[in-house]
Fold this sequence. Notes:
Blueprint: H1 12-35, H2 42-56, E1 59-66, E2 75-79, H3 87-91, H4 94-102, E3 106-113, E4 116-128, E5 131-141, H5 153-193, H6 199-202, H7 208-221, E6 227-230, H8 237-246, E7 255-259, H9 265-273, H10 289-292, E8 297-301, H11 308-320, E9 322-323, E10 332-333, E11 337-342, H12 346-351, H13 357-363, E12 366-369, H14 380-395, E13 401-402, H15 404-412, H16 418-432, E14 437-438, H17 449-453, H18 461-475, H19 480-487, H20 491-498
Parallel strand pairs: 6-11, 6-12, 7-8, 8-11, 13-14
Antiparallel strand pairs: 1-2, 1-5, 3-4, 4-5, 9-10
Helix pairs in contact: 1-2, 1-5, 2-5, 7-8, 11-13, 14-16, 18-19, 19-20
Amino acid sequence: MSPAPDPPRRDSATEAFDLKKKVLRLETLYDVSRSIATVRDEHELLEEIVSRSVAVLDAAKGFAAVFDEGAQPGSAVSIGFGTSPDPIAVASDPFVLDLCRAQQPLARIETSILGRPAASAAGVALVARGKVLGVLALLDREARFGHSADFNEEDRRFLGSVAALAAPALDGVRQFKALVEDVDRLREENRALKGTFGVDDLLIGESAAMRRAKELIARAAASRVSVLVRGESGTGKELAAKLLHAGSPRRDGPFLALNCAAVPETLLESELFGIEKGVATGVDARLGKFELANGGTIFLDEIGDAPLSTQAKLLRVLQEREIERLGGRQRIPVDVRVVAATHADLLEEIKRRRFREDLFYRLRVVEIVMPPLRERREDIPRLAAHFLSKLAARDGRKPPMLSRDAVAALLSYPFPGNVRELENLLEGAAALLQGPVIEAADLQLGLTSAAVEKRPSSQDLESLELDHIRRVLASVAGNKSRAAKILGINRRTLYRKAV
Length: 499
């Protein structure tokens, strides 16, 4: 048997070149691992892995991209492309889609990537926590020292190693960015809640009634006494309660709110005072709002709707500073400031024996009245500007303007729903707006359910029609041409009906 032929000899220059390439790849991976550990910008990270990979693998060009995720947009960097490719175009490229599906390094010859022909290509998906974040791809490898121009197994292994280092770092960058944004958002919310913003910044308005309410909030906040906030629905009673908490020594404690009218009578006491385990079959122990709010403030909205049995227990809490859970016998001390609110006339409710007089005086150590919007019409333009700015900031656009007719319409409208109704009207108008200016017709004044409910039920059809015409005229500041257009009638008919 003839001996096997000797393997082809490799000259010393080729062997030296291969050895240098291996050493270079190891050094590059080491350098990449050190550099990306300190990177806090994803664009910088992509530049690092693209530039090093192109240099080590002798590629003519390359790119790296990350895909958009929620509020974090995609981005891409490249070498040899002139301008960086669009991340959206990268995400839809067939070779990139193959990389994302395979989630391991791939190589191709005689292909096309991002609309460009490539004699050879290799790439790898950047995967972290089982999710594809982006890709790294190289094109047109240069043939040196007799090596093929195709990307080989060693090249793919190198790309896999780069991806294994870069993907977790990229994931960390994105998580860090999201965390910073969350911290900033929470810091702003915390500043607002804890009074870094003054009362004037959160309760908009400079009318005499509003100034009086803000002055009382600022003065009462620092005390420990119970406060009763009175006002119609939508006047900002809960905001006043939050400001009382934010300006108090309890600002670092919890703030808990409970609407007494929204909880069934059979559940209200368990919500307030908690319940012991075993009161009924399958019932577990549960803490009530008073225990959960210990060291902070509890806001009892619509206190006038609480049943008399609950009122008696609330009085005991205010007097004794302790509670008993439903089904329990142990007295549990609580340190809670109570802020109550109501739209009802509690003195009238006392006369009708529907509210305890002793509880009323325990709650109303300080009384703050939130004025209805119809009694502070001079605040409407400022409130409107505030709400439009807030809506525009939320939607990432420029705030719309109010026309003179729109301002006049708002000033003449009774606002039975108060500030909440104003905000809802403006939100609806801004959502449907096609231009930069809100006109009176865009506000849909007089069409709210609250306005309909205010109409006397005994009116005949002719009277209802006349009332509607007058409301539309008021909403456009008496402009009969605009009113006729809104009503769908001609001016002559309008004059005949309205005069």
